[in-house]
Design a protein that fits this description.
Blueprint (H helix, E strand, L loop, with lengths): L3 H8 L3 H30 L14 H7 L6 H7 L7 H50 L8 H9 L6 H11 L7 H8 L21 H28 L3 H9 L4 H12 L1 H16 L3 H5 L13 H10 L7 H25 L3 H23 L6
């Protein structure tokens, strides 16, 4: 029998102190994350600039997704070649602006996908190769800790510093280190003058994209490598020992043991990389010469920032909010598809079997008057 003191001690609940400790987190989350998210959805259905308070419904989404183009006659009216009244010109000008916004958004979304795929595929291949290499017990690699630190260091460098570094290296002037190297190799003939043919690593289309892909891969492969290494080190070593005793090759061990058991970490890496890739902002925004962002590397996040802060006549709050909501929906959909495709089919089948057995047991209990035999 428990004494009165023991019963009193058991009745004391310390749960309230736990709630008190985590309360600051929820307050900070509400003010700095949850409310901005809710406000983004509100702004997405409102007007732009000084007309933000006016509800426009789905118009902002239609303008972003619906292609609008002026006919040749309408373009001549906007340019003043064909006479038209002020109301018609204003309507045609607004229509032309909507078409420009749609084209900019589609281009930004296409750039986002290109830059993400272009940096994620080499990043995951390099990180997985290095993670397997560093965790292989058969290989006695000297200085593993040093290499891990060096490979992770680009992840902690600020984006502004990285952008300035690669802007200097890839400059299209005669002082650009990469173009000077190409000139010494005979690939670039002239660095200055009317006949100069430098590679446009900053203002070009694919050269600029390739540089940004390389930057993103270089900055993040160390972080991905560390996560994959932690996943491999969490696998039971006895499995690798048994495979070695059975005479399995390194490729067979990788395909049959490492990859299947590494799938949870791989899913996490894929989802986090996808979220970060779709929200890519800093390097595409900072990597440009002068004040104009290269349109061919401008991402959806850059589109949102430019229309929110640097609208032409006024800030396009509604378009920025609508683009944010669309990006949120695309991220949610792709994340759900990723989790669905990588679900544990065996665990789901076993769970269904348990449910069926429970149903059968309940039916049997009812047949015997609710008593189990």
């Amino acid at each position: 029998m428990a004494s009165a003191a023991q019963k009193r001690i058991k009745s004391i609940s310390y749960a309230k102190y736990g709630y008190m400790f985590i309360l600051p987190f929820f307050l900070v989350y509400f003010f700095f994350q949850l409310w901005p998210l809710i406000n983004t959805f509100i702004v997405a259905f409102q007007g732009n600039g000084s007309e933000t308070g006016e509800a426009v419904g789905l118009d902002n989404f239609k303008h972003l997704l619906q292609k609008v183009s002026l006919t040749q006659e309408e373009n001549r009216k906007v340019l003043g070649i064909i006479p038209a009244d002020d109301d018609e010109i204003a309507a045609l000008t607004a229509k032309k602006m909507q078409g420009t916004i749609h084209d900019d958004f589609v281009t930004a979304f296409k750039n986002t996908l290109i830059l993400w795929f272009g940096n994620f595929i080499p990043q995951i291949l390099l990180s997985l190769s290095l993670a397997v290499w560093f965790t292989d017990a058969k290989l006695k690699i000297p200085g593993k800790g040093f290499f891990k630190v060096v490979m992770y260091m680009p992840n902690i460098i600020t984006a502004a510093s990285v952008a300035v570094l690669f802007m200097s290296l890839c400059s299209e002037s005669k002082y650009g280190a990469v173009n000077q190297l190409l000139h010494s190799m005979g690939i670039v003939k002239e660095l200055e003058g009317p006949d100069r043919d430098v590679v446009k690593f900053v203002s070009g289309i694919w050269p600029a994209r390739c540089v940004i892909m390389f930057i993103q891969t270089w900055m993040w492969f160390g972080n991905t490598m560390i996560m994959l290494m932690s996943g491999i080190m969490g696998i039971n070593p006895s499995l690798f020992e048994a495979a070695s005793i059975d005479g399995a090759s390194s490729g067979q061990v990788f395909r049959k043991i490492t990859l299947p058991l590494l799938s949870p970490i791989m899913v996490y890496t894929l989802v986090t990389s996808m979220i970060g890739g779709l929200q890519m902002f800093d390097i595409p925004f900072l990597y440009h010469d002068g004040t104009v962002v290269n349109k061919d590397v401008s991402t959806v996040a850059v589109f949102i920032y430019r229309h929110f802060h640097t609208g032409q006549k006024y800030q396009n709050y509604g378009y920025s909010g609508a683009a944010s909501v669309l990006l949120f929906i695309v991220t949610l959909a792709l994340g759900s598809i990723t989790f669905y495709m990588n679900r544990d089919v065996d665990a789901i089948a076993k769970k269904k079997q348990r449910k069926e057995l429970q149903k059968q047991m309940k039916l049997q209990n009812k047949q015997f008057g609710g008593l189990s035999l």
